[in-house]
């Protein structure tokens, strides 16, 4: 149990200390400006302060902390990817997640569940075998299982042959976990603030000040709806708005933004421990500690900057869910929501330096941003502090789209997009 719960129980006034500061004025200048107050931006500020002693930092968030994709995802943490670069990167993040509750002195509701990715045909079984071999090569606990083992692992799932897409087998990713997404944002935000970083909510970036001609351009400041601030270095961590913010710097990113919808049911008695995903059905689901079933699906078919939910997508992921768990037919949906996913052609992120000096990128996460939160914060902080690209993210450079060194991780999606 985190010590903060014990300290709260012993307090006479029953008041918890503030997790984040009250609104304050922007200073005229900062060493580092972080655009985006979601998990990645706050984690970057946290590790800059904790690991590098850099605290003259401003995090600018146009809404409220955790109000974007950090608070709109389905909480999945995993590392069973296909490319070696992706597996090593996300495995580092999974390991960092294990110590966050102690680092923050906060209950993050981290729960190790294992993720089971279903295969419905021979081609999908070959892909699962491939992913299993890559995971094992890097020392990640993984198993390829058949129907009999699946029945033991998930006795409540419909594994009969009398359905549209019978299950043939599955990939079991044992480190798969879930955690409370907004708690991650609050933990990083509170930790960064307590170490000296400034967090400014309701502050919209309206433009970027860049000096120099092509080939020698350098970021010098940030325009906001609260005034102009000088900046020595700037990093953008804005998920679905990545393309729009990069455009302010004159950078064209190979990114399209699609809504990604999910929903949650009324609470039920616990019946599902592992997370289940099926690219064939375009659906994945898990059960929270409160008993709700969290259900997600594939991205919307058309690019759109929107977080509205739709009946069409809800019906789509309900069809797949009910083929796997038909007894959920009468269960009520309590909430439905959407996030904005910034998709790259190869389903891998864009990280590192840009063509503008001292302007750094954290973009292209698609549906994988939450699970990468700790490792992004760590590598972003090292990148900014040393102005050198960490080895772990070298393969994610924007330049790979010019050299055709793509990292195709499409086959590692939980629900095909």
Could you explain the architecture of this structure?
The chain has 417 residues and is an alpha+beta fold. It has two domains: 25-79 and 81-104 and 181-255 and 346-412, FAD/NAD(P)-binding domain, CATH 3.50.50.60; 112-175 and 257-343, 2-Layer Sandwich (D-Amino Acid Oxidase, Chain A, domain 2). Helix content is 28%, strand content 25%. It contains eleven helices and 19 strands. It has helices at residues 3-10, 39-52, 84-97, 100-104, 122-137, 147-153, 181-194, 242-248, 311-324, 373-386, 400-403, and strands at residues 29-35, 57-60, 76-77, 111-112, 115-119, 142-145, 169-173, 177-178, 198-200, 205-211, 218-224, 227-236, 256-265, 275-278, 283-287, 293-299, 333-343, 350-353, 359-363. Strands 1, 2, 9, 10, 11, 12, 18 and 19 form an eight-stranded mixed beta sheet that branches. An eight-stranded mixed beta sheet has the order 6-7-5-14-15-16-13-17. Helix 2 packs parallel to helix 7 and helix 2 crosses helix 10 (373-386). The longest helix has 16 residues, at 122-137. The radius of gyration is 21 Å and the shape is globular. The mean pLDDT is 93.
Describe this protein with a few key phrases.
single chain; alpha+beta; FAD/NAD(P)-binding domain; D-Amino Acid Oxidase, Chain A, domain 2; eight-stranded mixed beta sheet; 11 helices; 19 strands; 28% helix
What CATH architecture label of the largest domain applies?
A: 3-Layer(bba) Sandwich
Overall pLDDT level: 93
Strand residue content: 15-25%
Summing up helix and strand content along with how strands pair, one would put the structural category as alpha+beta
| End-to-end CA span | 38 Å
Q: Tell me the domain tally.
A: 2
- H-E string: HEHEEHHEEHEHEEHEEEEHEEEEHEEEHH
DSSP summary, beta strand count: 19
Q: Superfamily at the CATH H level of the largest domain?
A: FAD/NAD(P)-binding domain
Helical content band: 25-40%
List low-pLDDT spans: none
Within the CATH hierarchy, at the fold level, what is the topology of the largest domain? FAD/NAD(P)-binding domain
Largest sheet: 8 strands, mixed
| Number of alpha- plus pi-helical segments | 11
Outline: globular
